[in-house]
Design brief:
two-stranded antiparallel sheet, two-stranded antiparallel ribbon, about 525 residues, Cytochrome d ubiquinol oxidase subunit I, 19 helices, globular, metal ion binding, transport, single chain, cell membrane, transmembrane, mainly alpha
Length: about 525
């Protein structure tokens, strides 16, 4: 087994996923914000809200188109770099992705054209319905993708077939309502909403600092602050739910995130700060908060959270059980389905540990020939790198609470301080724009890197999932993907900056005329005015 190929394949997928996830959060959140703004326009018939809708929809459209391009190449990699994975779990993993393409993406792609080009063709209410369908389609896409990813974290509703050497679906209901998938979906979508809210807030703050488009900026800040406050609270609450599901289904990941080397008496403490040392199995300079980890991981003060040492011993026991399953598997395949009932029953008893036996493939071709030392090494391989997981999680959480503070401030300033904002606050809003993307990437890293050494947790090791490619093939495609994605990223940034600098350029005359007459009406100098008929 060439681990250079494994690591290069992982690096390639990680790079493309990180690039793709630069586009996804803004698409999820901005689609909802645009729909909210258009809803206000339809309810009030004020042109300023139509102008706002068109402006932010333009930025959404740029991000949406480039996000689609980056997502298509990711799916290409499943067949190119991860062919054994695709063959092994294609029955389960392929179904949600197919539904995502047939239902969510087609709906999103169909209505996005009507959203941009249907302003003069559709009535305001019909156009509003189209905009909401685009937003719903965007979020439905995330749902099915995260159902697929959630199954990799917690493989339910499927069973291994020893004759075909594949996982086969037996309960689509369990796959859809997988608690890990549902927790990941609501947490990821809420993070996208925060990203969009911070983006709208920051761009609007920049306009106010420049003294441009003040009315649009003030109203956009009002929407972003209210929407962002609700979304940030959701991220924190749903992040807690995600932590609970991790503690229930992925105990090693939780122990690594917490750098919990040894099992503690309940309730477990949370390490606020520390320097994890994986070699010494200790966390230096640790600052701990009593009870907090017990509440996050178990929702109780009486349950223990197993430490890494205990989980490694458990993995060793499962590897030995998996060796029994592997031996039975070889007998079943040799008998071609005509095995004895005793062998079949023995395989069924140990089949859930078969994936652990596959971890031995790193050291020996036949797991049945593994020595005690090799079994111990394979058990230690179930511990992911602790230091990066420990700090990526804490930086993500810290940024989440920082967003909460920003949104609370602007929500209060909007609703109780007459929408007046000091320049330091506006500058802060501009500077914080990149932060949600950093938090989102850290969250993705924590979720996926923490699952190692598994592609499908407890079922299929990452090292067995790759295609039989050469190092040269991988280096060429890696360079090609990085170049392609970098070009798309530069195009995205260039177009975004161009249209932000250009500002809202649609319906300017109608909006300004309406605003002028509206101000005169409020001062008693004119009669009420309604939006001109289209």
């Amino acid at each position: 087994m060439d681990f250079g190929i494994v690591e290069l394949s992982r690096l390639q997928f990680a790079m493309t996923a990180l690039y793709h996830f630069l586009f996804v959060p803004l698409t999820l959140g901005l689609s909802i914000i645009v729909a909210i703004m258009e809803t206000v326009f339809v309810m009030t018939n004020r042109p300023i809200w139509r102008q706002m809708t068109k402006f932010w929809a333009t930025l959404f459209g740029i991000n949406f188109v480039l996000g689609v391009a980056t997502g298509l190449t990711m799916e290409f990699q499943f067949g190119m770099n991860w062919s054994y994975y695709s063959q092994y779990v294609g029955d389960i993993f392929g179904a949600p992705l197919a539904i995502e393409g047939l239902m969510a993406f087609f709906m999103e792609a169909t209505f996005v054209g009507l959203m941009f080009f249907g302003w003069e063709k559709l009535s305001p209410v019909k156009h509003l319905v189209v905009t909401w369908l685009v937003a719903i389609g965007s979020n439905f896409s995330a749902l099915w993708i995260l159902i697929a990813n959630g199954w990799m974290q917690n493989p339910v509703g499927a069973k291994f077939n020893p004759l075909t050497m594949r996982m086969e679906l037996h309960s689509f209901y369990d796959v859809i309502f997988n608690p890990v998938a549902q927790a990941k979906f609501v947490h990821t979508v809420s993070a996208g909403y925060v990203t969009a809210a911070v983006f709208v807030l920051g761009v609007s703050a920049w306009y106010m600092l420049k003294g441009r488009h003040i009315e649009l900026a003030r109203r956009s800040i009002a929407v972003a602050a209210s929407f962002g406050l609700a979304a940030t609270l959701s991220v924190i609450v749903l992040g807690d739910e995600s932590g609970y599901e991790t503690g229930h289904n992925q105990k090693m990941k939780l122990a690594a995130i917490e750098a919990m080397w040894h099992t503690e008496e309940a309730p477990a403490t949370f390490t606020l700060f520390g320097i994890p040392d994986q070699q010494a199995r200790e966390t230096k300079y640790a600052i701990r908060v009593p009870w907090l980890m017990g509440l996050i991981g178990t929702r109780s003060l009486t349950e223990k959270i197993p430490g890494i040492d205990e989980l490694v011993k458990n993995s060793e026991a499962r590897i030995r059980s998996g060796i029994v399953a592997y031996d039975d598997l070889m007998k079943i395949r040799a008998a071609k389905g005509d095995e004895s009932p005793a062998v079949k029953a023995d395989f069924e008893a140990h089949s859930t540990d078969l994936g652990y036996a596959f971890l031995l493939k790193r050291y020996v071709d036949d797991p049945r020939q593994a020595t005690d030392a090799e079994i111990a090494k394979a058990a230690n391989d179930t511990v992911p790198p602790v230091f990066p997981l420990f700090w990526s999680f804490r930086l993500m959480v810290g940024l989440g609470f920082a967003f909460l503070a920003v949104m609370i401030y602007f929500f209060i300033a909007t609703n109780w301080r007459g929408m007046t904002y000091p320049r330091w606050a506006l500058r802060l809003a501009v500077w914080v724009i990149p932060a949600p993307w950093i938090a989102a990437e850290l969250g993705w890293f924590t979720a996926e890197f923490g699952r190692q050494p598994w592609t499908v947790d407890g079922i299929l090791p990452t090292a067995l999932s790759v295609s039989h490619l050469s190092v040269g093939d991988l280096l060429i495609t890696l360079a090609g993907f990085v170049t392609f994605y970098s070009v798309l990223f530069v195009i995205e940034m260039g177009l975004m900056v161009k249209y932000i600098r250009k500002g809202p350029y649609l319906d300017v005359d109608i909006t300004e005329q309406w605003q002028e007459r509206h101000d005169r009406m409020l001062s008693g100098q004119d009669l009420p005015v309604t939006m001109p008929a289209e």
